Structure formats: C-alpha cells, structure tokens
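This week, look over our next protein:
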Amino acid sequence: MPETFHERLSALDATFLDVEGKTAPMHVGAALLFDAKPLTLDHGGLDIERLTRYTTAALDSIPRYRQRIEWVPGLGHPVWVDDQRFNMHFHLRHTRLPMPGDERMLKRLVGRLFSQHLDRSRPLWEFWVVEGVENDTFALIVKVHHCMVDGIAGVQLLEALVQIMPDAQEREPQPWSPRPMPSRVELLRSEVKHRVDGLRELSHYMPRVRKNFQGLTNVLRSGMKPAPKTLFTERDVSPYRRFDWTSFALDEVKAIKNALGGTINDVVVATTTGAVRRFLIRRNENVDAIEGFRTLLPVNTRKMGGIGVGNHVAMLLADLPISEPDPIKRMKRVTEITTELKKESNQTGGAELIEDIADLTTKRIVSELYRAAMQLRTYNLVITNVPGPPMPLYLLSSPMKAIYPMVPLMQNQNLGIALFSYNGGLHWGFNADWESFPDVHEFVEDLEATFEEYKALAHARASEVSESKEASAHS
C-alpha cells in the first residue's frame, strides 16, 4: 500500500488563507499576452487541445498544482494533500472576448476574473486562455492563491510554462497517481509532534532574538502604527476589481537610476510617490498635511539560489515623501528611506524571526499580527517588484509579448501595484477596488506623467555631465 502524504503549510502561507475575506480574495495573478498566429488553427481558433496537453505536462515539475488544502482536526492548521479528483479541465479554462476584443475589454475581463474566489476544495489555481484579443493576440490569465506562491515562486511557475526557444521539444504528460491522504488521527499526531518539537527548539532562538531585537521592535512598532487617512484607505473594499497596466522600457528606468542615484526599485518607488502626489492634488487633497504616506514593500528573503513554492518574504513598511514637490529631492529621500529599511532598521531580520517562531509553534502569531494591521489600517498602498527573465520567452511557438502582474488587496486597501521585468520592459499591473477606486486609469496616467518627468531630468543631468567632461577635456 502506498505511503500517505501531507505537507504542512508555513505560518506565513497559512496566514494568507486566514486573512482572506468575502470581499478580499487572496490570490496573486498575472495577465500574459502572446502572439496568437503560431497556435491558430485553420478554422481561426487556438489549438486548445495542444495547449491543454502542454500545460498538463508542465505540472509534472510543479506537483503543488495537483494538491489541495486539508485541515488538521482540532488545531486547524492547513496541510497540502494530493487531490484525489484532480481534473485539469476544471483548472485550465477557455473563453473569448466579443468583438472588437480591444485592450479595454481585456482589462475589464481580467478585473472580473481576479474578483472571483478560488474553490478551496480544489487545488488553488486557475488558468484562463482568452481568445479574440485584437492584433492577433491571445491572453493567459493566471490566478494562484497567495498561500502557494510569492513573486519569486511565481517566476518558477512561469519557467515551468514557457521556454526560451520557440522550437523546443514538447513534453508529454507523465502518468500521475495521487498519494493517499493521512487519517485524521495521523494529521493530529503529526501536528502535535511538530509543535512539541518546536517548543524544544525555541531555546536555540535566543541568539537570534538578541541579534534581531531592534529589527523585531521596529517591525512591531511600524506594524501597529496607523497610516494617514487618505482616499487610498478610506473605506473597505467591495467584492469587485478593476485591472489596468502600463509598461516602461527598462533601459529608460536604468538611465534614471544612473543619472539620479538609487536602484531600479528606488526609481519605481519614487515614480509611484510622485504619482500619488499628483493624484491626490487633482482631488483637492492637502498633500502637505499628510505625514508619512505608508507603503508596504514585500522583500524576498530566500537564501541565494533558494527555490521552491510558498512564501519567503518580509513585509517592510516605508513612509513615502508625497509632500515633497521637488522630484529630485523626492528621489533622494526615497533612496535614503529604502536604504535605512534594508540596512539599518533590520526589519527584514525581525520579520523573519517572527515567521520562524510561528512555524515552530502556531500560525496565529503571524495571522493575528496581520489582522491587527488590517484593523489599524497600517499602510496605504502595496508596491511589489519582481525581477523576471531578460530574454524573450515562448509558450510552445508563441512569443510572449508582455506580462502584467497582480497583487491582491487586503480588506482596507483599494489599490495594489505589482511590477515584473521581462525582455527589456518593466511591466506594471494595477489591481483596484471597483467602487472605492474607480479612476485607476487616471492614476496610471499620473504615473506615466511622473515617469516622463524623471526621464527629462535624467536626460538633462546626463547632458550636464557630458558637457562638463568635454569642458574639462578642452581646458
């Protein structure tokens, strides 16, 4: 008889199940756009059978996508078990846009799909193949629960689905048989043993507690501090979402970084800060009176070369200078803030310590902190930036044109911004509440205007440096 299988969720992964609400689904996602011509059949539709066979084969390298959630009786901790009734056709879905299939219609569909909760009785993911997109394009809409992946694990999912060569040999699906689920008694016994062993290990954590005490204090202090009241958090979210996107050339982002200082992520954060300022001013908000516009910045905590599913992130809180009118001073201040967060405050070490202790004992340590942060409305906005592949990728023989990521909204937050770099572009995805943030397209316009301002400043700074060098050479 085959051995039973189950795998315990980490405290952070389990927390994303705990904080999910009726109006706040906790899946991450993306809209991927592909050239449809290489996969179009003679009748004008996509070769869905081939796509299904190919995607099924991709699951052989990511076994989590054939597993569902089960709960430890009495203690309520979630575990992964193989889905005895796994059905690929339930998870890979197929639809088509009505004519003319323009970008606006696609964004509306993406928002509607991202509004819908995943079925917790099945593996927690859906892929939607969308035909009929203008300019010979089809879309792949990806939804995966946050308890399964963070941004880096999402890149690994992408690597399982796409390839760097358009003519690579197609993989054939391998036979798969689900492993039996443990009995309720076995699940309870395993969880009790884990917690008892964890309590014994806690004594070894004192050196880490002493080392990261300041970081731990900073995490708790910032995590329990209410953010300023703005229209970004003025009321709880509705069940409905709008989705929008834009893209910038990565070379232009790097040119701003090189001319004005900081990192690529600093350019992202400073551009967003400027967009928030523009957006609030146009709505007659007194930005000078807003002290510390609070932003959540997830940071990857995987060790070098670390792989695997699940979440390995620390949530850092940064007070952004939206009251600063000068864009260059704003960029400098953002760089100072992010440097302080990463190096001096040790919030990352403090956040990791909390998560590790919760893994040894109970997930409630993390989930209750998240719930308290939600009730206190401790941040106004989320910005997450994931580095992606710099080369073109292909789904079978279809080149991927763009990828626009999505970060979920918490109960009291009405805009989330996710970024993904790919093939020379920096792609932005904006997930917004339908009712409390209906003008997300105007925010995107403000962001694009701010980026153009930084491009002009960077060009002027580069010209000044070049002229100075020429003058020095002739003197």
Remarks:
- Residues 212 and 349 are 6 Å apart (CA to CA).
- The chain has a mean pLDDT of 88.
- The chain has two domains: 7-173, 214-388+406-474.
